[in-house]
Amino acid sequence: MNIAPSTAFRDKCAIVGIGNSRLGKVPGVSSLDLLVEAMVNALDDAGLKTSDIDGLICRGPDDAYGHHQLIGARLGINANISTTMDNGGASQILSIAMAVMAIEAGLATTVLCGYGRDAWSRTHATEEARVRNETRPASQRPREFGPEYGYFGAVAAHAFGAQRHMHLYGTTRDHFAEIAVAFREHALRNPQAQMKKPLTKAEYHEARLIVSPFGLFDCSLRSDAAGAVIVTSRDRAKDMKQPPVPIKGFGSFNNLRGWFMDDNMVVTAAKKSGETAYKMAGLGPQDVDTAQLYDCFTYMVLTQLEDYGFCKKGEGGDFVASGALKLGGRLPTNTSGGQLSESHAEGMLQIVEGARQMRHGYGADRQVKDAEIALISGHGGNQVCHSTLILGRA
Amino acid sequence: MSDRTTAADRPQKPTPRPSPESTPYWDAAAQHKLRVQKCNACGQHWFPPSQRCPHCTAADFTWAEVSGRGKVFSFVVFHRVYHPAFEGEVPYVVALVELAEGPRLLTNIVGISSDEVRCDMAVKVLFADVAAGVAVPKFTPA
Known about the structure:
heterodimer, A: alpha/beta, Peroxisomal Thiolase, Chain A, domain 1, two-stranded antiparallel ribbon, B: mainly beta, 5-stranded antiparallel β-sheet, 3-stranded antiparallel β-sheet, globular
């Protein structure tokens, strides 16, 4: 269906508070407490109190029922609008889109959005948990059409797409290596990043295979991590502590027929989600100065670069090999290290980094010079849900 | 120690745990037949099982035997052991096979080295008896 995203939402709201928790290995702290830590940091950043918040839209592990209620109770917040998202890694941008819509509809004035997880602690709690490397509760795992064939986990699901892309377009693991190495270089400039050691292409190729075509460094991190942002109208934002980061557009698309259906594993829902966001913002890929893409696996960055129109379908390999993704390159991407090297909080930290880049608060070693527009993506929910956020310079 | 381990001690591979919707599929597989649902309204096949046709929402269907022939849409090779029962199996191939009739099935490719499997390779079904009265369809080069 052709839709006509409303340009009336363009630049109406802004991100006015940004926060993250401690990242990486944070044993003994629940996902809820990590998220509260990130949210309190976002409130402090904005110069707001919990009593200023009247909307709460958030998400955590799949087994935290009524997640927003648990968070509201811990922060002592009553809200005009609150809910828990259920679109996997696409949820976090969608929560910001919902915040904008709620504010514009007059349902709330100041909305707190966030995501927290304890995935490192959860997958290292016991030897069995380490072997299974599974964050979903047992009740939500498949009982047939998978486990009997030894098919487990998100690595394999995404590796199917990588293999098909390699077959169709001649993409190689060396292309994937370019992505892993670029993001690691960014992480080394980020003192909060989980990964601290340099990574070379040779080390990428020498590392053990997990589910080929993916090896160790194609896979994102298991992290204890949370991030949060505060959204309000630009009118309210004028008097706040930080320069407001304008929300220029957002979009969403969901290939609900399934990752294994049609060509969804090589032309992802990012394509239509991005088209919607570009229309709302009145912008195109040529206007984007930095991208913060959902990098659960290296291949997902490559296909999204194509789906968002930064290069043609099938040319992602050449694009990444050109050095475009590195700070100083044509499209500095995942400038904090991303989920491959900073920490994995289901896309929430991409939003945090995109907003920080738009504030131009970093030193020259981390700041994307003269950046005016940031594009941020979220992907997840059995690989079919996608959302896009476009931010402008504060 | 391992020579004293009895079969009962060894971790067992998961066997399918059918739902009411998928029971006819597994009953057919136990007889080494590959059956999927075929819509009596629009004529299209579908998988995985559900009570209405995902192409046209009709509830009128037949469990139709299919050719068992298809091609590898994509595949992956497991090197990491996620379940102890697969420790002796790595590297093994999990593939998404597109049947000639349209539906795509997750399965294993057997009878060929993992480094010889290719996308779009022609394959045909065979059945692996994995427990008493339980067989799972796998595929091998046609």
